[in-house]
Design a protein that fits this description.
seven-stranded mixed β-sheet, Spore Coat Polysaccharide Biosynthesis Protein SpsA, Chain A, 7 strands, 2 domains
Length: 414
């Protein structure tokens, strides 16, 4: 027999509430509340501008804490409002579940047990997405979301779209979110992970009713587009700030010997991986992709599971002292490839070439003031430089990769 009173006492002890956002769920909200109220007296409901009889149904439950507003804003906004509402009521944690009847209230103890084990974590209720009743679009969307979450945070989770979650709402108070629809549930876990909050999963059950009985406000095209835009933004910040930040933090917290051993030498890593990692870094360090070299080197290394530290380190070959040699070598290599460089007049006839010409003089010349004449010469022959830059990058990366492979083999034998 279930001891409901002990669970209610534990909710109060942990300062945890159940938070239910709802919009036009009049047919299911009463059953959901009846089930939840068996386990918890501390129930907060956010009525996100419902236009059916949802509000009337909610008023039949006088013990719940109700926050309601007239205009529908979206699930993300309802959750954000719910977090603020719960904090003002004195709660430190909130377990969120959907009001459409998908989630089982008897999984609430699973979250309480997880909370006692790790108070500094968001726990996501991981569903069995392989069961036959799961809609195909939900399964695909979940795999899509899991992939990008792992890319953005390095955390591998089986279910990142479940709405059955436990949030440490006090710790989220310092984060300022900008999404208001379904994509909020992705933004919150990514940004929480960036802030050092643990993100974990616990197993839960899920009920998907037959298609003709299913209630959903998810709009596949609009909401999936919003999620895609959000992931684009998150990936951008991951690559330009959070990945480099985490690497710097690791370097500061580790000894140089351990750093070299773990990320550079790594005796368990095949020689071919080290060779490809060096080749990748050399290619993007030399290629005429100024401004995006580190970003691309890291991205390719991550995509092909190479040694990211080596690729990032080697891509810094384009540091200022080396730039004159790279520019000159690219220019000369382009001459070898083309045979004859195009003239100024021929180049400047192409649409936009005058802009590129002026930009090359300014951008390349600014790297090293003493090489302004060389920069101007390269800008006048931009085609030769770009082709030569890629040719030099390919040649150098292949050569560096071969040398690395041979050296690693020799070192391992010794």
């Amino acid at each position: 027999m279930i001891d409901y009173d002990s669970y209610k006492a534990l909710f109060k002890k942990l300062k945890c509430c159940v938070l239910i956002p709802t919009y036009n769920n009049a047919s299911t909200i009463s059953d959901v509340l009846n089930d939840v109220l068996q386990y918890c007296d501390d129930v907060c409901v956010v009525n996100d501008g419902s236009t059916d009889n949802t509000l009337l149904r909610l008023k039949q439950f006088p013990t719940i804490k109700l926050h309601s507003y007239d205009k529908n804003r979206g699930k993300g906004w309802a959750l954000r409002q719910g977090f603020d509402f719960a904090r003002k009521l004195g709660y430190d944690y909130a377990i969120t579940l959907d009001s459409d009847g998908q989630h089982y209230a008897d999984d609430l103890p699973v979250f309480l047990a997880a909370l006692e084990e790790d108070p500094n974590a968001i726990f996501i209720g991981a569903r069995n997405m392989e069961q036959s009743t799961v809609p195909g679009k939900s399964s695909f969307g979940n795999k899509f979301s899991n992939f990008w979450f792992r890319f953005e945070t390095g955390i591998n989770l089986p279910d990142t779209q479940s709405g059955y979650r436990l949030y440490p709402i006090r710790q989220l108070e310092k984060l300022h979110f900008f999404t208001v629809k379904y994509e909020f549930e992705i933004e919150v876990i990514v940004r929480a992970a960036w802030a050092g909050i643990h993100v974990k999963c616990v197993p839960v059950r899920v009920y998907y009713p037959p298609a003709d009985e299913r209630i959903t406000h998810f709009r596949p095209f609009q909401d999936f587009s919003r999620i895609s835009v959000l992931n684009t933004v998150l990936v951008f910040f991951t690559l330009i700030w959070f990945k480099p930040r985490d690497l710097v933090r690791y370097i500061l917290n580790q000894s140089l010997k351990k750093l070299v051993q773990d990320y550079i030498i790594r005796s368990d890593e095949p020689a071919i991986v080290k060779a490809l990692s060096v080749g990748t870094g050399i290619f993007f360090g030399i290629a005429p992709l100024w401004g995006a070299q580190l970003l691309l080197a890291f991205g390719v290394a991550w995509l092909f599971r190479l040694n990211k530290a080596i690729s990032l380190l080697v891509s810094n070959i384009s540091i200022p002292p080396m730039i004159p040699f790279i520019l000159y070598g690219s220019y000369k290599m382009g001459g070898l490839v083309l045979g004859k460089a195009p003239t100024d007049e021929a180049l400047l006839k192409y649409p936009g070439m005058k802009f590129i010409y002026d930009w090359m003089i300014h951008a390349i010349g600014s790297f090293h003031i003493r090489n302004a004449e060389l920069a101007a010469e390269i800008a006048r022959n931009v085609t030769q430089y770009i082709i030569g830059g890629f040719a030099l990058a390919i040649f150098s990366s292949v050569l560096a990769g071969i040398i690395t492979f041979i050296l690693v083999k020799i070192l391992k034998k010794s």
